[in-house]
Amino acid sequence: MKKSTWVFIGAIFVCLCGLRLLGTSAPQGASPEQAGAWTAIGPFGGNIRGLVRNPKSPAELYAATESYPGQLWRSTNGGAGWTRQSTISDRPYDLAADPKTPGKLYAISYNSLLISTDQGKTFDSHTLPYGFGCNNGRIAVHPANPKTILVSGDFVWDSANYKTVPAVAKTTNGGTSWTVQKLTSGSEYGTVYDAVFAKSNPNYVYLCGYDHKNSVRTPRIFVSKNSGATWTAVGSSPVFSGDYAVCYAVCVDARDPKKAWVAHSNGIARTANAGGSWKAQQTTQITDVTAIAADASNPKVLYAGGKFQYVRGSLKSTDGGLTWQAVTEGLYGECRRILASGASVYWAGGAGIFQSKNGGTTWAVGHKGIRGAVVESFAAAPSSPNTLIAGIYGYGHFRTANGGALWSPCGYYYGTEFTGSIAISATNPNLVYVKPSG
Fold first, then answer.
1. pLDDT class for 285, splitting at 50, 70, 90?
2. Could you read off the pLDDT of 98-114 as tens digits, one per residue?
3. Which one, of 264, 359, 350, 260, lies nearest residue 303 by Cα?
4. What global pTM score does this model have?
5. Domain residue spans in the chain?
6. Which of 34, 72, 114, 142 is 20 to 30 Å apart from 169, CA to CA?
7. Residue 265, CA atoms < 13 Å, CB-side half-sphere
8. How far apart are CA 43 and CA 285, in angstroms?
9. Judging by beta carbons within 10 Å of its beta carbon (0-12, 13-18, 19+), is residue 172 exposed, middle or buried?
10. Class of 48-365 per CATH?
């Protein structure tokens, strides 16, 4: 395929924004493409907010796309292909698998914990406390007692001015009743992004996020040593300081609950004493790290997802996070979730799911069958009707020369993941004009 020439201008003539390629419910026996007058042609993937593996069956994966309504997807072949299990009435923000019961799943929407006992085909809803929100939150299920569940997020403490504080909601009876613990006071706004139980000792729990008070944004990390009954702030280290400082994700060593890594807006930090002190890791090629996970088969092998000079990519460490190597080719969109076990690694986020079969050295698209891409801009070449270019939110630009049968990513440029308007030359289909978003 010929490479297109990218030209940036201050105004663009054509703008088709907000299109959403989503599979709709089809009659029994019919595929989503046969359900109506429209045929989805891709590119597909979408914003993945949840990705989990069946703990008893490694080839069985589940994913949730943050569409409206949300979509729950299942793969039984390690991500090679996906089928839709159900539609969720609201946007799903996270997905978790029960550590003891195969096929039991947990999801969170705007104000509910959703529980499925049939591999995501149906969900029962449990309303979260009034004033608590989890649109940026995560689910943490107790490894030994799955009825104890934490949901991270924020709490509206001043409804008149809509001021929020970082908070966590906890249930000890599987969602029947809840308590909310506000983790700071007087914040103008703030949230908890991630919540993680330590597998080797679930008394240890880690939270991370940020809050904003008196015009200062402060990264926040909290540790509990009694399964979330009480919390201690442990994120005051200068390691986390900087512009727009935020802590996005936590990874806890599978063997030692006092050892943990935090992905934050300025890199990766490590503690060996449950947050008593922190050390910055050697990640000079990173400007923003949004996800981190350990290899299930080797805790010294870690993966992280972040931004590398405006290009998304993956980091890998084989020495417990002391040093990291970057891979940027083949990955698109903001990283939200990572699963790793041996050579098999999954990287998921705003551009769908990507899979590596060689320990993160190379990556390929791993979301075949998932329909959920958000098309921000779109253009067809006047001189070549089968040549189309689509701008996908969080994914960059894609081009097809055969009417949508096959799409290929266009080259990166500054700001490519958040697309603007597109126009194609009337006489040359390889001359493309783009107004970057913002």
1. low
2. 999 999 999 999 889 99
3. 359
4. 0.85
5. 5-41+374-435, 48-365
6. 72
7. 17
8. 30
9. middle
10. mainly beta
Which are the contacts of 82, defined by CB distance < 8 A and separation ≥ 6?
63, 73, 74, 75, 367, 368, 369, 370
Q: Which residues of 89-115 are buried (b: 16+ CB within 10 A; e: fewer)?
A: ebbbbbbbbbbeeebbbbbbbebbbbb
